[in-house]
Amino acid sequence: MGRMTPSRKIPLVLYGYYGFGNWGDELSLLATLRVLEDVGRELSLPFAYRVIVGDPSLVPPLPGEVTLVERQRPAWMLSTLLKSRGVVVGGGSLLQDATSFRSLLYYTTFLSLAQRVGKPVVFFGCGLGPFQRKLSVKLVRKLLRRVRLFLARDEVTLAFLEEHHLCPASLGADPVFLLEQEKGGASSPRLGIFLRREALGRKEVLCEGLRKLQREGWDLEFVAFHRGEDREVAESFAEHLHAPVYVFSGVSEVLSYFSELSGVVSMRFHPLVLATQSGIPWWAFDLDPKIVAFSAHWEGKNLLSLATLDPALLCAALRDAAVLREKTRVLRDMFRRRALAAKGELARFLESILG
Q1: Is-above-0.70 flag for pTM?
Q2: For the chain, what are the domain ranges?
Q3: How confident is the model at residue 5 (pLDDT cuts 50, 70, 90)?
Q4: I want to staple 238 with a disulfide (CB 3.0 to 4.6 A). Which of 120, 147, 222, 311 is the partner?
Q5: Euclidean distance between the first and the last CA atom of the chain, given in angstroms as a whole number
Protein backbone atom coordinates (compact mmCIF):
# COMPACT_ATOMS: atom_id res chain seq x y z
CA MET A 1 0.00 0.00 0.00
CA GLY A 2 1.22 3.52 -0.75
CA ARG A 3 3.30 4.88 -3.59
CA MET A 4 5.13 2.42 -5.78
CA THR A 5 7.93 2.77 -8.31
CA PRO A 6 6.94 3.27 -11.97
CA SER A 7 6.29 0.09 -13.99
CA ARG A 8 5.03 -1.14 -17.34
CA LYS A 9 1.72 -2.15 -15.81
CA ILE A 10 -1.55 -0.78 -17.14
CA PRO A 11 -2.72 2.05 -14.85
CA LEU A 12 -6.37 1.95 -13.79
CA VAL A 13 -8.19 4.41 -11.53
CA LEU A 14 -10.41 2.88 -8.82
CA TYR A 15 -13.15 5.27 -7.82
CA GLY A 16 -15.62 5.04 -4.95
CA TYR A 17 -16.42 6.15 -1.41
CA TYR A 18 -13.15 4.76 -0.12
CA GLY A 19 -11.14 5.84 2.91
CA PHE A 20 -13.99 7.11 5.07
CA GLY A 21 -14.15 4.42 7.73
CA ASN A 22 -17.13 2.47 6.39
CA TRP A 23 -16.21 -1.21 6.22
CA GLY A 24 -18.76 -1.86 3.47
CA ASP A 25 -16.97 0.46 1.06
CA GLU A 26 -13.49 -0.72 2.06
CA LEU A 27 -14.52 -4.35 1.52
CA SER A 28 -16.03 -3.43 -1.86
CA LEU A 29 -12.68 -1.91 -2.83
CA LEU A 30 -10.79 -4.98 -1.63
CA ALA A 31 -13.12 -7.33 -3.52
CA THR A 32 -12.87 -5.27 -6.72
CA LEU A 33 -9.07 -5.24 -6.57
CA ARG A 34 -8.94 -8.99 -6.05
CA VAL A 35 -11.20 -9.43 -9.08
CA LEU A 36 -8.94 -7.20 -11.18
CA GLU A 37 -5.86 -9.09 -10.02
CA ASP A 38 -7.50 -12.37 -11.09
CA VAL A 39 -8.56 -10.88 -14.43
CA GLY A 40 -5.07 -9.48 -15.01
CA ARG A 41 -3.48 -12.90 -14.46
CA GLU A 42 -6.01 -14.66 -16.70
CA LEU A 43 -5.57 -12.18 -19.56
CA SER A 44 -1.87 -11.41 -19.04
CA LEU A 45 -2.80 -7.76 -18.47
CA PRO A 46 -0.84 -6.62 -15.41
CA PHE A 47 -2.52 -3.66 -13.71
CA ALA A 48 -1.30 -0.85 -11.48
CA TYR A 49 -4.05 0.76 -9.43
CA ARG A 50 -4.57 4.40 -8.55
CA VAL A 51 -7.22 4.44 -5.84
CA ILE A 52 -8.98 7.73 -5.03
CA VAL A 53 -9.46 7.88 -1.24
CA GLY A 54 -10.48 10.21 1.53
CA ASP A 55 -8.15 9.29 4.39
CA PRO A 56 -5.38 6.85 3.41
CA SER A 57 -5.01 5.72 7.03
CA LEU A 58 -8.54 4.25 6.91
CA VAL A 59 -7.84 2.05 3.87
CA PRO A 60 -6.95 -1.59 4.68
CA PRO A 61 -3.98 -3.36 3.06
CA LEU A 62 -4.75 -3.98 -0.60
CA PRO A 63 -3.51 -6.52 -3.18
CA GLY A 64 -1.43 -5.56 -6.20
CA GLU A 65 0.54 -2.44 -7.04
CA VAL A 66 -1.48 0.36 -5.45
CA THR A 67 -1.09 4.11 -5.15
CA LEU A 68 -3.51 5.90 -2.84
CA VAL A 69 -4.49 9.26 -4.31
CA GLU A 70 -6.05 11.69 -1.85
CA ARG A 71 -9.22 13.33 -3.14
CA GLN A 72 -8.33 16.52 -1.25
CA ARG A 73 -5.58 17.04 -3.83
CA PRO A 74 -7.42 17.70 -7.13
CA ALA A 75 -4.26 18.38 -9.17
CA TRP A 76 -2.93 14.92 -8.21
CA MET A 77 -6.31 13.38 -9.05
CA LEU A 78 -6.32 15.04 -12.49
CA SER A 79 -2.75 13.95 -13.24
CA THR A 80 -3.60 10.40 -12.17
CA LEU A 81 -6.68 10.36 -14.39
CA LEU A 82 -4.80 11.60 -17.45
CA LYS A 83 -2.14 8.90 -17.06
CA SER A 84 -4.67 6.09 -16.61
CA ARG A 85 -6.23 3.75 -19.17
CA GLY A 86 -9.67 3.73 -17.60
CA VAL A 87 -11.83 4.14 -14.49
CA VAL A 88 -13.46 1.31 -12.53
CA VAL A 89 -16.17 2.23 -10.01
CA GLY A 90 -16.13 -0.75 -7.66
CA GLY A 91 -19.19 -1.36 -5.50
CA GLY A 92 -21.42 1.00 -3.57
CA SER A 93 -24.13 3.44 -4.65
CA LEU A 94 -21.92 6.35 -5.65
CA LEU A 95 -24.59 8.06 -7.75
CA GLN A 96 -27.36 9.15 -5.37
CA ASP A 97 -28.53 12.39 -3.82
CA ALA A 98 -29.91 11.12 -0.50
CA THR A 99 -26.63 12.09 1.15
CA SER A 100 -26.58 15.46 -0.63
CA PHE A 101 -26.86 16.91 -4.12
CA ARG A 102 -23.35 18.27 -3.66
CA SER A 103 -22.04 14.73 -3.24
CA LEU A 104 -23.70 13.62 -6.46
CA LEU A 105 -22.32 16.65 -8.30
CA TYR A 106 -18.81 15.84 -7.07
CA TYR A 107 -18.89 12.27 -8.38
CA THR A 108 -20.60 13.03 -11.69
CA THR A 109 -18.12 15.85 -12.36
CA PHE A 110 -15.10 13.57 -11.98
CA LEU A 111 -16.59 10.75 -14.04
CA SER A 112 -17.76 13.17 -16.76
CA LEU A 113 -14.24 14.58 -16.88
CA ALA A 114 -12.87 11.07 -17.33
CA GLN A 115 -15.19 10.59 -20.29
CA ARG A 116 -14.21 13.93 -21.82
CA VAL A 117 -10.52 13.00 -21.79
CA GLY A 118 -11.26 9.64 -23.39
CA LYS A 119 -11.04 7.30 -20.39
CA PRO A 120 -13.59 4.45 -20.48
CA VAL A 121 -15.70 4.16 -17.32
CA VAL A 122 -17.11 0.85 -16.06
CA PHE A 123 -19.27 0.23 -12.97
CA PHE A 124 -18.73 -3.13 -11.25
CA GLY A 125 -21.32 -4.40 -8.76
CA CYS A 126 -22.79 -0.94 -8.17
CA GLY A 127 -26.23 0.39 -7.30
CA LEU A 128 -27.98 3.62 -8.25
CA GLY A 129 -30.06 6.03 -6.21
CA PRO A 130 -32.11 6.97 -4.43
CA PHE A 131 -32.74 10.21 -6.31
CA GLN A 132 -34.82 12.94 -4.70
CA ARG A 133 -34.44 15.59 -7.42
CA LYS A 134 -35.32 15.64 -11.12
CA LEU A 135 -32.02 17.42 -11.79
CA SER A 136 -30.17 14.49 -10.21
CA VAL A 137 -31.79 12.03 -12.60
CA LYS A 138 -30.95 14.32 -15.53
CA LEU A 139 -27.27 14.50 -14.50
CA VAL A 140 -27.02 10.75 -13.98
CA ARG A 141 -28.72 9.94 -17.29
CA LYS A 142 -26.32 12.23 -19.14
CA LEU A 143 -23.32 10.55 -17.51
CA LEU A 144 -24.53 6.98 -17.93
CA ARG A 145 -25.31 7.34 -21.62
CA ARG A 146 -21.54 7.46 -22.15
CA VAL A 147 -20.54 4.78 -19.63
CA ARG A 148 -19.09 1.75 -21.41
CA LEU A 149 -20.52 -0.96 -19.12
CA PHE A 150 -22.63 -1.09 -15.95
CA LEU A 151 -22.67 -4.37 -14.00
CA ALA A 152 -25.58 -3.73 -11.65
CA ARG A 153 -25.73 -4.86 -8.05
CA ASP A 154 -29.50 -5.29 -7.97
CA GLU A 155 -32.65 -5.54 -10.06
CA VAL A 156 -33.82 -2.00 -9.24
CA THR A 157 -30.61 -0.52 -10.64
CA LEU A 158 -30.83 -2.62 -13.80
CA ALA A 159 -34.47 -1.60 -14.29
CA PHE A 160 -33.48 2.11 -14.06
CA LEU A 161 -30.77 1.64 -16.68
CA GLU A 162 -33.11 -0.22 -19.02
CA GLU A 163 -36.06 2.12 -18.50
CA HIS A 164 -33.97 5.15 -19.48
CA HIS A 165 -32.18 3.33 -22.33
CA LEU A 166 -28.73 4.10 -20.93
CA CYS A 167 -25.42 2.22 -21.16
CA PRO A 168 -24.86 -1.51 -21.81
CA ALA A 169 -25.79 -3.24 -18.56
CA SER A 170 -26.40 -6.62 -16.96
CA LEU A 171 -27.29 -7.98 -13.54
CA GLY A 172 -24.46 -8.90 -11.20
CA ALA A 173 -24.16 -8.71 -7.43
CA ASP A 174 -22.30 -6.83 -4.74
CA PRO A 175 -18.52 -7.44 -5.08
CA VAL A 176 -18.35 -8.45 -1.41
CA PHE A 177 -20.05 -11.72 -2.40
CA LEU A 178 -16.71 -12.67 -3.99
CA LEU A 179 -14.78 -12.43 -0.72
CA GLU A 180 -14.11 -15.73 1.01
CA GLN A 181 -15.83 -16.08 4.38
CA GLU A 182 -16.20 -18.82 6.90
CA LYS A 183 -19.65 -20.37 6.99
CA GLY A 184 -21.62 -19.37 10.07
CA GLY A 185 -24.32 -20.78 12.28
CA ALA A 186 -22.77 -20.68 15.73
CA SER A 187 -24.54 -22.69 18.41
CA SER A 188 -24.32 -19.82 20.90
CA PRO A 189 -27.18 -17.29 20.50
CA ARG A 190 -24.98 -14.28 19.59
CA LEU A 191 -26.84 -11.47 17.84
CA GLY A 192 -24.77 -8.78 16.10
CA ILE A 193 -26.55 -5.41 16.05
CA PHE A 194 -25.49 -2.69 13.59
CA LEU A 195 -27.16 0.66 14.28
CA ARG A 196 -26.99 4.10 12.68
CA ARG A 197 -27.79 7.43 14.29
CA GLU A 198 -31.45 7.11 13.21
CA ALA A 199 -31.79 4.54 15.99
CA LEU A 200 -31.49 7.26 18.62
CA GLY A 201 -34.89 8.67 17.62
CA ARG A 202 -36.51 5.36 18.58
CA LYS A 203 -34.17 4.40 21.38
CA GLU A 204 -36.82 3.72 23.99
CA VAL A 205 -38.86 1.27 21.92
CA LEU A 206 -35.74 -0.32 20.43
CA CYS A 207 -34.25 -0.90 23.87
CA GLU A 208 -37.51 -2.41 25.09
CA GLY A 209 -37.54 -4.85 22.17
CA LEU A 210 -33.86 -5.70 22.54
CA ARG A 211 -34.30 -6.27 26.25
CA LYS A 212 -37.07 -8.76 25.45
CA LEU A 213 -34.64 -10.55 23.12
CA GLN A 214 -32.14 -10.75 25.96
CA ARG A 215 -34.79 -12.35 28.15
CA GLU A 216 -35.48 -14.86 25.37
CA GLY A 217 -31.82 -15.90 25.44
CA TRP A 218 -30.09 -13.78 22.81
CA ASP A 219 -26.64 -12.41 23.65
CA LEU A 220 -26.51 -8.91 22.15
CA GLU A 221 -23.37 -7.31 20.65
CA PHE A 222 -23.35 -3.77 19.24
CA VAL A 223 -21.02 -3.19 16.30
CA ALA A 224 -19.77 0.16 14.96
CA PHE A 225 -19.57 -0.79 11.27
CA HIS A 226 -18.81 2.80 10.23
CA ARG A 227 -15.94 3.55 12.56
CA GLY A 228 -16.66 7.27 12.76
CA GLU A 229 -20.45 7.54 12.59
CA ASP A 230 -21.68 4.46 14.45
CA ARG A 231 -19.49 4.18 17.53
CA GLU A 232 -21.36 6.67 19.70
CA VAL A 233 -24.70 5.04 18.84
CA ALA A 234 -23.37 1.55 19.57
CA GLU A 235 -21.92 2.64 22.90
CA SER A 236 -25.16 4.38 23.90
CA PHE A 237 -27.27 1.25 23.36
CA ALA A 238 -24.64 -1.10 24.76
CA GLU A 239 -24.41 0.88 27.99
CA HIS A 240 -28.18 0.87 28.36
CA LEU A 241 -28.44 -2.89 27.78
CA HIS A 242 -25.17 -3.95 29.47
CA ALA A 243 -23.80 -5.45 26.26
CA PRO A 244 -20.35 -5.36 24.58
CA VAL A 245 -19.30 -3.02 21.75
CA TYR A 246 -17.16 -4.12 18.80
CA VAL A 247 -15.04 -1.88 16.58
CA PHE A 248 -13.21 -3.89 13.91
CA SER A 249 -9.50 -3.30 13.48
CA GLY A 250 -8.91 -5.18 10.21
CA VAL A 251 -10.40 -7.03 7.25
CA SER A 252 -9.78 -10.54 8.61
CA GLU A 253 -11.58 -9.61 11.82
CA VAL A 254 -14.62 -8.34 9.87
CA LEU A 255 -14.82 -11.43 7.67
CA SER A 256 -14.44 -13.93 10.50
CA TYR A 257 -16.81 -12.15 12.91
CA PHE A 258 -20.01 -13.12 11.11
CA SER A 259 -19.27 -16.84 11.25
CA GLU A 260 -19.39 -16.56 15.05
CA LEU A 261 -22.95 -15.17 15.09
CA SER A 262 -26.37 -16.79 15.05
CA GLY A 263 -28.07 -13.70 13.61
CA VAL A 264 -27.73 -10.05 12.59
CA VAL A 265 -29.99 -7.02 13.06
CA SER A 266 -28.83 -4.07 10.98
CA MET A 267 -29.51 -0.58 9.71
CA ARG A 268 -26.61 -0.87 7.26
CA PHE A 269 -26.49 -2.82 4.01
CA HIS A 270 -23.15 -4.61 4.00
CA PRO A 271 -23.60 -6.43 7.32
CA LEU A 272 -26.55 -8.08 5.54
CA VAL A 273 -24.32 -9.12 2.63
CA LEU A 274 -21.72 -10.51 5.04
CA ALA A 275 -24.40 -12.34 7.03
CA THR A 276 -25.77 -13.84 3.81
CA GLN A 277 -22.25 -14.91 2.82
CA SER A 278 -21.91 -16.70 6.15
CA GLY A 279 -25.35 -18.28 5.77
CA ILE A 280 -26.85 -16.77 8.90
CA PRO A 281 -30.31 -15.15 9.19
CA TRP A 282 -30.64 -11.39 9.36
CA TRP A 283 -33.26 -8.73 9.99
CA ALA A 284 -32.99 -5.15 8.74
CA PHE A 285 -34.74 -1.82 9.10
CA ASP A 286 -36.29 -0.18 6.04
CA LEU A 287 -34.13 2.98 6.12
CA ASP A 288 -32.44 2.46 2.76
CA PRO A 289 -33.94 1.47 -0.62
CA LYS A 290 -31.10 -0.98 -1.27
CA ILE A 291 -31.94 -2.80 1.97
CA VAL A 292 -35.61 -2.99 0.96
CA ALA A 293 -34.62 -4.32 -2.48
CA PHE A 294 -32.28 -6.89 -0.93
CA SER A 295 -34.94 -8.06 1.50
CA ALA A 296 -37.32 -8.68 -1.42
CA HIS A 297 -35.35 -11.87 -2.15
CA TRP A 298 -36.64 -13.13 1.21
CA GLU A 299 -40.17 -11.87 0.36
CA GLY A 300 -39.59 -9.08 2.89
CA LYS A 301 -39.91 -11.50 5.81
CA ASN A 302 -36.72 -10.13 7.40
CA LEU A 303 -37.63 -6.43 6.93
CA LEU A 304 -38.56 -4.29 9.93
CA SER A 305 -40.11 -0.82 10.03
CA LEU A 306 -38.37 1.60 12.37
CA ALA A 307 -41.28 4.05 12.26
CA THR A 308 -43.85 1.50 13.43
CA LEU A 309 -41.58 -0.79 15.43
CA ASP A 310 -43.20 -2.67 18.28
CA PRO A 311 -41.10 -4.69 20.75
CA ALA A 312 -43.36 -7.71 20.34
CA LEU A 313 -43.00 -7.58 16.55
CA LEU A 314 -39.21 -7.53 16.84
CA CYS A 315 -39.23 -10.63 19.01
CA ALA A 316 -41.74 -12.39 16.75
CA ALA A 317 -39.59 -11.71 13.67
CA LEU A 318 -36.53 -13.33 15.23
CA ARG A 319 -38.46 -16.52 16.00
CA ASP A 320 -38.39 -17.24 12.25
CA ALA A 321 -34.60 -17.65 12.35
CA ALA A 322 -34.56 -21.30 11.27
CA VAL A 323 -36.70 -20.69 8.17
CA LEU A 324 -34.69 -17.63 7.19
CA ARG A 325 -31.42 -19.52 7.64
CA GLU A 326 -32.39 -22.11 5.02
CA LYS A 327 -33.51 -19.44 2.56
CA THR A 328 -30.32 -17.46 3.16
CA ARG A 329 -28.09 -20.39 2.28
CA VAL A 330 -29.90 -20.91 -1.04
CA LEU A 331 -29.68 -17.20 -1.89
CA ARG A 332 -26.00 -17.04 -0.91
CA ASP A 333 -25.15 -19.41 -3.74
CA MET A 334 -27.29 -17.45 -6.20
CA PHE A 335 -25.63 -14.11 -5.40
CA ARG A 336 -22.18 -15.63 -5.68
CA ARG A 337 -23.02 -17.07 -9.12
CA ARG A 338 -24.24 -13.65 -10.22
CA ALA A 339 -21.07 -11.99 -8.91
CA LEU A 340 -18.89 -14.53 -10.74
CA ALA A 341 -20.82 -13.92 -13.96
CA ALA A 342 -20.22 -10.18 -13.58
CA LYS A 343 -16.52 -10.88 -13.04
CA GLY A 344 -16.47 -12.73 -16.36
CA GLU A 345 -18.17 -9.82 -18.13
CA LEU A 346 -15.67 -7.39 -16.63
CA ALA A 347 -12.82 -9.56 -17.90
CA ARG A 348 -14.22 -9.61 -21.43
CA PHE A 349 -14.73 -5.85 -21.38
CA LEU A 350 -11.20 -5.11 -20.17
CA GLU A 351 -9.76 -7.49 -22.75
CA SER A 352 -11.69 -5.69 -25.50
CA ILE A 353 -10.38 -2.23 -24.58
CA LEU A 354 -6.91 -3.08 -23.27
CA GLY A 355 -5.87 -6.39 -24.79
Answers
A1: yes
A2: 10-178+336-354, 190-319
A3: very low
A4: 222
A5: 26
